[in-house]
UniProtKB/TrEMBL annotation, chain A:
SUPFAM superfamilies with a match to the protein in the record: MetI-like
UniProt record similarity statement: Belongs to the binding-protein-dependent transport system permease family. HisMQ subfamily.
UniProt domain ABC transmembrane type-1: residue ranges: 94-410
Keyword line: Amino-acid transport, Cell membrane, Membrane, Transmembrane, Transmembrane helix, Transport
The name this protein goes by in its record: ABC transporter permease subunit
PROSITE patterns: ABC_TM1
From TrEMBL, chain C:
InterPro entries: Bact_solute-bind_prot3, Solute-binding_3/MltF_N
Family matches, as CDD domains: PBP2_BztA
Top-level taxon: Bacteria
This protein's UniProt keywords: Signal, Transport
Domain Solute-binding protein family 3/N-terminal: 33-262
Lineage: Bacteria, Pseudomonadati, Pseudomonadota, Alphaproteobacteria, Rhodobacterales
UniProt protein name: Amino acid ABC transporter substrate-binding protein
Recorded family membership: Belongs to the bacterial solute-binding protein 3 family.
Entry annotated with the keyword Transport: yes
GO BP annotations listed: amino acid transport
Keyword Transport assigned: yes
Signal peptide: 1-22
Amino acid sequence: MANVHDVPKDTFRLSMLLYDTRYRSLTIQVVIFMLFMAGIAWLIDNTVDNLRALGKDPVFDYSFLGNRAGYDISQRLIEYTNDSTHARAMLVGLLNTLLVSVLGCIAATILGVFAGVLRLSKSWIVARLMTVYVEVTRNVPLLLWILLVYAVFTEAMPAPNAFRPNAEGVAGASMILGDSVAITNRYTAIPNPMYVRDLGTISLGIVHISVNFLVLVAIIAGSIWANRRILAHAAAVQEATGVRPTTWWKSLLTLFGPVVAFLWFMGFHLEYPELKGFNFAGGINVTNSLMALWLALTLYTAAFIAEIVRAGIQAISKGQTEAAFALGLRPGRTMSLVILPQALRVIIPPLISQYLNLTKNSSLAIAVGYLDLRGTLGGITLNQTGRELEAILLMAGIYLTISLIISGAMNVYNKSVKLKER
Amino acid sequence: MNNQVSYVRTQMLAQQPPPGREMGAVKWMRENLFAGPINSALTILGAAAVVWLIASAWPWLAASVWNASTLSECREIIAASWGEGHHGACWAVIKDRWQQYAFGFYPSDLYWRAILALGLLFFALTPVLFAANRRVANRVMGVVSLVVLAFVTVAEFRLIDPADAAAHSIWAAILTVTLVLAVLWAVHIFAPSKLIWFTAIYPGLGFWLLWGGSVWLPVVALAGFVIGWLAFRAAQPFGGPAQLVAMLLVPVLWWIYGAGVAADVLNRIIPFSIEAVGSDKFGGFVLAITIGVAGIALSLPFGIVLALGRQSNMFLVKALSVCFIEFIRGVPLITLLFTASLLLNYFLPPGTNFDIILRVIIMVTLFAAAYIAEVIRGGLAALPRGQYEAADALGLDYWKAQRLIILPQALKISIPGIVSTFIGMFKDTTLVVFVGLLDPLKGITDIVRASTDWKGIYWEPYIFVAAIFFIFNFSMSRYAMYLERKLKTDHR
Amino acid sequence: MKKSVFLGTLSAAALSAGIASAATLDDVKARGELNCGVTTGLTGFAVPDANGNWTGFDVAVCRAVAAAVLGDPAKVKFVPTTGQTRFTALASGEVDMLARNTTWTFSRDTDLKFDFVGVNYYDGQGFMVRKDLGVSSAKELAGATICIQTGTTTELNLADYFKANNMEYQPVAIETNAEGEQQYLAGACDAYTTDASGLAATRAAFADPENHIILPEIISKEPLGPLVRHGDNEWGDIVMWTLNALVAAEEYGITSANLEEQAANSPNPEVKRLLGSSEDDLGAMIKLDKEWAKRAIAASGNYGEIFAATIGESTPIGLARGLNAQWTQGGLLYSPPFR
């Protein structure tokens, strides 16, 4: 015991800040912090000086958001007129961004999974075709795809009045999907979901939400929760007795029963678009800028997703399948219990970062005049009010929040599927 | 055990040819096209898709016109040759304006400088990318030399605008290019390890060739690094942290206070300059490549620092790095470009005025740095823990360990990722059109379409630009895959 | 010159921090080049040819100013700006003046801190429709789909007009004029609305101009003119009076052809003052030399010559003078006297 001494407790000397590893990192951090703050101060000081020189007030002033916007937005999810405020225009833009992003993510996933699986297809021609699709799409700028798809819509699709039968009763173009969808060179008319009964709307400040919609969401959420309980119960029974009770009809009933019942009760029906005057009415007219942006984002992102899916499938060694077969698992269960959980662990993280990319890329809406967040807040509003500093910072903040939410979701997922190592 | 075997064949049967369906084309088709009902259906669908694509594009492509000076002339030719109402491709617009797609408004008598600058890029990259494989290096340099010479010759003899031709010597340009290439080849052959010095001076040289002006500006800028190194050596007696501070601080002071004056003085003593080309002359693929390459090259050191910062044990360093990376990765590039265009001038000292290309390069660099940092972080994470421990065991301090052990390996693993980032950035350079720069895709195309000759042209420029982008990016991505394969065998 | 872009900027910045709003005139003279903000390409107004030489109506104003200040109409750096970036480019000092068919409005002049120095083209917003639509007045456009450029005053005018007339419409937002033409031709919108001059230029370039009509309604006033930063009146004066010189030159019959002769022999004392051949030194009052206006006019001719060469009736764009004729001819062009 006696030969081991504690490190002698020196009195503190100033030079220890630099040479003693215990304090050095602290010193460095303090210096970096000071440099960082100095840098920030420098930037702010410059900004204030520059704004002064231009005769603008060097204070953040977001009051312009309360002014009348004065411009129209053709594609909107919520009520908006040119008398609405800039804040509401911003909200319309934000919802448009989210709309095209969500639609794009869904479609890109479906198309990407198809393309990824087909790329591994035994059919030579299909595999090659998918390779060509993936390579051509990935190696050409997204902006070009957006412009091309937009051009296809406007140049190659019929005008609305081409759907009108001419003197001989023959129309130049016809609607598709059982006369429910009309693709024109201005918009795509789709059926409008309608209710006979209406539960009214509730208003939350500037947002008005249909109660019908809220109830529907609540019912779906409840059904999913109930279904989970059923499955958990089945698993518990299986644990206890070794026999899993049949659940598929219960699941089906819980998942779809309440929704169907609610929709029936509310008198849900689809209102089909019809040609009235020069344009289609009755349904929802989705502008071509949204369609083009959506399709282009889908095509582009799906090519990346296809590669991710392919890599994910190829990453699972054949031994896993063979081992599962050796255990006596049927192919379906092999896929769902052995292959997919492992492949998804490889696939999901890059997949989510593709969702993130898609959301950010949706800001290219500028190329087709789709008024998303950048088009409203960072575009027309900025231009009309001349508040570039405030508008851009706010816009960056909103995009950042969306991104952080998505990557937060990814981190939660990553944690949940992380290999539990010894 | 029963040894009795009821029947044993004693005679071998003569070999038979395999059945017809297991042979040749039939077998290949059965296995690759019609293996099972689903695959057969897919094949038929796929074939139908191919046929449909070709059938719908062919009439348009077949009616291609290459020689016309305006769109209406082009349409007349199509109407005359293929009948009224026939649609055809009017590639004449590309033939008429391809110089603009390639060089923007770069002066035609200086095309050789742009070509040389981009060609030399490959020479500068050779020691980094192909160091291990001399054969590949030879091949790349050979191809690049020939391409550069061919392009320069074509540019000199065919493309010079008569207005620029007066004070220009074709042979001087070609001779200069040949001489530069010859010197580099000599270095490559006789002292291959010295070619890395060319890599070191390339940023200055490339800048000088592209923008022109006094040679002293890039020289004093590069001198900053030498000064930093000298400061690093000079501060040796004062210990590691002091060295680091000196290494960072002295060059920055030099760039801010010394460089401008030094360049002025040197320029007065030995004036040596070439014709300056303003940033407003940049456009087309020269602009895209300049922004892309400058962005990636400048972002590399920055990205490395960020990646190390993110791995650091120091809370503040880590927090700042993470914040920066997540912020940049969280906002769309277009927002950053608008920041470059609308806000950056507010953030910089009053009275300064960076031109828009420089501001865009600054933002693109920040953007790329965040992505590169993540790529390199992947490389750092992929290194076995033992490498760090071994470095510690040898008693190396943090910077020595990073410099000698960790980074060389981590960077090597990261090269494919860096190439992918570059491809992404190269594609993203098309977005600069939204801040008023003349990118090849929309900027130049809009200008071409604003001229009365080509008003109304639509598909052809897009297809042309798409093809060029595809060729660039596809070859780069193939190269990244090749590297990935090669590096994999090294490590497993 | 390149120094101003790279290191020099940094060093200059560090040394000269604080001299923020140096006079634009001195900057331009020191730089030896005028930075002029123009469109990214609008036929007739500002468009670069295959060699990168910019030509057009707005471009001519830039060249005249360069000629007046620097003595050489070629010493202009044209900075293409979009509807979005134009104001910041000017505010931040990236360009010295903006000649980019920008409408003079109250808020731009006051809230955005710019000074419009005059009007070089009196325009108004109109509509173009296909003839077979059977519409002869903008009042019949109820329910129509209308293509419109974003980031301009036109979208506000459009909203106001339809509101005032109690009509509905569907806007199709587009980014550039080229895109708008393509959309309109493809039938993606019933009507295309922009400044009437732009409509005429667009229509002229169609393969079948006879099938399209420009509706008679002009729904707004669009005085387009060059603008400078607020606060630097000296520079504003130079741009303003260069523009006025071009207008006055037309009024007095001074053309690029008879410039020298007029300067020497004109009986009109105002012409002599303008051209710097009399005793009065107008140039000195705006810190320029005596012959500034002469050079400005020599650059691309007087207002009428510029108009005729770039957007006039003999060009493919074929615009009539209309409001942009001299006041003596029933137009609105009226230069204050040079005295």
